[in-house]
Amino acid sequence: MKLYFSPGACSLSPHIVLREAGANFELEQVDNKEKKTKTGKDFWQINPKGQVPVLELDDGSKLTEGPIIVQYIADKNPAAGLVPAAGTMERYRVQEWLNFITSELHKTFGPIFRPTTPDEFKKLSRENLGKRFDWLDQQLAGRQYLMGDKFTVADAYLFTILRWAPRVEIDLARWPNLKAYVDRVSARPKVREAMQAEGLIQKAAAAS
Ligand SMILES: N[C@@H](CCC(=O)N[C@@H](CS)C(=O)NCC(=O)O)C(=O)O
Fold first, then answer.
1. Which residue lies with its CA nearest to atom 6 of ligand 1?
2. Ligand 1 in reach of 14 Cβ (< 6 A)
3. What does the alpha-carbon distance between residue 24 and residue 11 come to, in Å, rounded to a whole number?
4. Which ligand 1 atom is at minimum distance from the Cα of 64?
5. pLDDT-based confidence at 203, cuts 50/70/90?
6. Which long-range contacts (CB under 8 A, 24 or more apart) does 41-45 make?
7. What is the tens place of the pLDDT at every residue in 50-108?
8. How far apart are CA 44 and CA 82, in angstroms?
9. Is the shortest distance between the CB of 161 and ligand 1 below 6 Å?
10. pTM (predicted TM-score)
């Protein structure tokens, strides 16, 4: 399998899931502005939607859409326990989270990043995110992860999206449970590995 990613973008979510799942995979970096991959491929040919993440499977077929890719990886590596079994109510709960994250959070950040978005629209988007974060903060009270004590694919996605908050001048310190959640997820060894591989954090200096 090969994951096409762009550092720090939403592709960090399946990248984390690949590592948490213990899957064998390769990475190929995409320049999302130029739509070129590191090895010089035209990214439009890989994903005509022009977006990361893309998971290329061993038979050459490609899967897109982050919330689906993470479920695919988790289902193929059931021993890692990153999603409840398909058809169970718990699985629908994870899907409920994935859909909330994609439609209410992920896609609200997009216009704030874009330099051409009018300031008034950016202000409204920040306010909308704030309202969602108010609710999310309550949901995370007394919980380690979205589904309780167990880290799931929904956490990989939520963490990836919450990492963007400081870049759009949203201070997560306003939501103590969210802030603690981000710190908790970022301390996971596989999450750190993924962030290091994408150049988002430095490797810890070796102990002398
Ligand atoms: N619906 C897609 C959206 C993916 C997406 O928004 N990717 C962004 C990075 S976070 C991207 O590649 N944007 C570049 C572009 O749209 O030109 C998914 O959930 O995977």
1. 51
2. no
3. 17
4. 20
5. confident
6. 43/4
7. 999 999 999 999 999 999 999 999 999 999 999 999 999 999 999 999 999 999 999 99
8. 31
9. no
10. 0.97
Number of the ligand 1 atom closest to the C-alpha atom of 52? 12
At 207 the pLDDT is 47
| CA of 195 relative to ligand 1 center, distance in Å | 18
**Length reported for the chain:** 208
> Which residue CA neighbors atom 12 of ligand 1 most closely?
51
